[in-house]
Amino acid sequence: MTRFSLKSLIFSYYRGNTVLFFFGCILWLSSQSFALAADVYRLNPGDKLEITVWQEEDLKQEVVVLPDGTISFPLVGHVAAAGKTTEDLVSLLRERLSKFIPDSQINVRLLAAEGNMIYIAGEVAHPGAFVMKRPTNIIQALSMAGGLTTFAKKNDIIVLRSETDGRNKSLPFEYGDIEDGKNIESNILLQSGDTIVVP
Questions:
Q1: What does the alpha-carbon distance between residue 118 and residue 155 come to, in Å, rounded to a whole number?
Q2: Is 42 helix (H, G, I), strand (E, B) or coil?
Q3: Where are the domains of the chain?
Q4: What is the Cα–Cα distance from 47 to 81, expressed in whole angstroms?
Q5: Is CATH 3.30.499.10 what the domain over 48-112 is classified as, yes or no?
Q6: pLDDT at residue 27 tops 80
Q7: Separation of alpha carbons 13 and 124, rounded Å
Q8: How many whole angstroms separate alpha carbon 33 and alpha carbon 41?
Q9: Per-residue confidence at 165, pLDDT binned at 50, 70, 90?
Q10: How far is it, in rounded angstroms, from Cα 99 to Cα 76?
Q11: How far apart are CA 133 and CA 117, in angstroms?
């Protein structure tokens, strides 16, 4: 009887550790995915940043990317930030500061991605502007807006996107296909500035 209880205890111990290890792996992978997304995120007007320069406490600043895509920083003035990663901005600031502070150690931290906006118009429960706090596809965005109304033409949805060259393009999206498990690849990740129109 004692042997059986000991065996059961050992089995439970290893099973518990296996479960903990499994969930630990999931959490680690999730954190790595989040870190990767943060690394490739490109700044938008409205984003809030914290900028620090090592051993230069007076240069610690919280700044917002302005509507024209720039930030203002002591000694260097206005710097283009929109469209850049935080690492890109670090390199640019280091270059601009080099004549004042050689070999400066700069850190740029994204405090709030308030400029990472999409817009949803038409036959949804709650049309408006929405902040994307994580990678978001079309279905997820429509869910953020409360879903389609009963009058929505779900197979005539379009995504309006502005290209870097200033041109606009229209991406068709058929909600009915997704419901039927078809054309899943059309459920694309949205980009900042995209507008979903639901007729």
A1: 20
A2: coil
A3: 1-40, 48-112, 117-198
A4: 10
A5: no
A6: no
A7: 51
A8: 12
A9: confident
A10: 10
A11: 9
pTM over cut 0.85: no
Using CA atoms, how far residue 178 sits from 63, 136, 153, 173, in Å, is: 41, 16, 14, 9
Tokens of 36: 């990767």
Please state which CATH class domain 117-198 belongs to: alpha beta
Phi then psi for residue 24, to 5 deg, are -60, -40
pLDDT digits (tens, 9 = 90+) for 79-127: 999 999 999 999 999 999 999 999 999 999 999 999 999 999 999 999 9
Q: How many residues does the chain have?
A: 199
Neighbours of 49 (CB within 10 A): 20
**How many CB atoms sit inside 10 A of residue 147's CB?**
13
Nearest residue to 81 (alpha-carbon basis) of 59, 119, 36, 51: 51
Question: Rounded distance, CA 26 to CA 21, Å?
Answer: 9
pLDDT at 52 over 90: yes
